[in-house]
Every structure is written in structure tokens, then in C-alpha cells.
Amino acid sequence: MTTRLFIFLGDSLELNADASAGSITVTALGADGGPISRFSPDSSTAITTDDVHHVLRWRDHKDLHQLQGRAIRLKFHITNAKLYSLTPRTRHTHYVPSYD
Predict the structure, then answer these.
(1) Contact 8, 88 (CB under 8 A)
(2) What are the C-alpha distances in Å from 83 to residues 27, 37, 40, 53?
(3) Can you give the C-alpha Rg of the chain in angstroms?
């Protein structure tokens, strides 16, 4: 399943999903439909349990602030699992320097 193109505003993504009988991995795609470097399913941490607050993670990324403000699509690789909802969240405060 692939989402529509949207502007990602947040630094994490929460899933409500039941993957206790399978798994869910995710690929982040750019506006052109191609995978974003280091956000592939191979580097995605597989979800394999039932929870309403799964936090999507990719290796080498403690959060997803690198995707903030970008137009992206998410491609879900679902095997024997159910995905109920996806919620962008802001868990950390990132400061942008001001210019005078």
C-alpha cells in the first residue's frame, strides 16, 4: 500500500497496527516516486507486534526530522498484518537559527 503525496510535518510517525502474525516495513518515497536514500525497507525496523503506538524507525535515524517539510509518500510492505492508522507526531524540538 502506498499513501498519497503529503508534506511531512513532524519528526516521527506512529502506527496503530496488528503485526503479531506477520510484519510491516516501510519505504519513504520522494515526490518523484523514487525511494529516499536510507529510508528503504531494508533499513526499516520491522513491526511484528500488536500496538496502537508503534513508532516507525529506520537504522541510523533516531527520528525523522530529515523528512520534515518534504513532500513524501510512504510505501507499506505488509505481510499477514493489519494497519489501522498512521499519525505524524512531533516528539523533539528542533531549533532553526534566525537570521538578522
Answers:
(1) yes
(2) 15, 24, 19, 12
(3) 14
Q: Which three cell numbers stand for residue 57?
A: 524507525
pLDDT in tens, 69-81: 899 999 999 999 9
Per-residue buried b or exposed e for 78-87, using 16+ beta carbons within 10 Å of the residue's own CB: beebebeebe
Distance of CA 6 to the CA centre of its chain: 12
Which residues contact residue 77 at a Cβ distance below 8 angstroms, ignoring those fewer than 6 apart? Answer: 24, 25, 26, 27, 41
The mean pLDDT value for 26-35 works out to: 93
pLDDT value of position 38: 87
State how far the Cα of 15 lies from the Cα of 83, in Å rounded to an integer: 7
pTM: 0.83
Q: For the residues 43-58, what does the mean pLDDT come to?
A: 92
